[in-house]
User: Fold this.
Amino acid sequence: MTAPACHDEEFMRLFNDMGALKLSKQLGISERNVYKRRRNLEAKYAATIPPPGDPIKINYPGRLDAELRNGTVLIGSDLHIWPGEESVCLRAFKKFVEDIKPNIVILNGDVMDFPKISRYPQNWEKAPDPWEEIEAAQDHLSDIVQRCKRGSRKIWTIGNHDQRFEASIANSAPQFKNVKGVHLADHFSVWEKAMSCMINFDIEAARTMVKHRLAGGLHATYNNVKKAGTHIVTGHLHAQNVRSVSDYRGFDLYGFDTGCMAEKNHRAFSYAEDSPLDWREGFGLLTYLDGRLMPPEMITKWNSNAVIFRGGLVRV
Assistant:
């Protein structure tokens, strides 16, 4: 069997760029075969491959779509909730939900920690059982929901720590997959669960990918933008920073690591062995104006009673 002249995503992009006739000449195949492959790919991906001038949209498994031409999105990541006193940034996040009334609230992964079902060995510290973490998270997330404005979307993009819950059950007792309670969503039904959330796919200047992680390392926020080709918001690295990338399109693309909402000296991070951590405690706010993303804003812990926002202190 002869391999196709180009892979699926490249074919879809080229069809969208140049149309069937030009693409048939470039690939050296008949225009009829171009249309045939287009139909096959539309069936394969359950998506429309439009002619030149229209954006291509593919329905990827595990992705949610959201549209917001004007409004705000509050995004927090890496809560790593344990039973006990809530972190400064978790208190602040609840306050910002209530005060700003964002259109969309996103928990961008690692809401819980699940150290007892980690593949890494446990140290001498006492860690909570999964049910204790779930009950604590239910209380805090209920607080957030109660503060949300009516009609706002509440989205949870899953992190690698969150995945430990279902992975542990699936690996040890796969026969329970259809039993209620074995999925994280069973315990947090109000929140829309996904691997990622694409905001404003149809507007290039506002197209924003939100997912827990992509690239790693010191230059992750820059590399995330280069890899994604869109604005992108991540967590995972706990770094909290914004990196803008400019090109001939005439607007900046932003990479945004929203930081860590847990206290960085929390016992959950004892694996760091008291090393200096280039982390920042905080979360982020996105504002869309007339179909364009404005520069992302950081909300960062100042002390045990306040966070920094727009050049001032907000007491929490």
About this structure: Residues 1-59 form one domain. The CA atoms of residues 207 and 249 lie 13 Å apart.
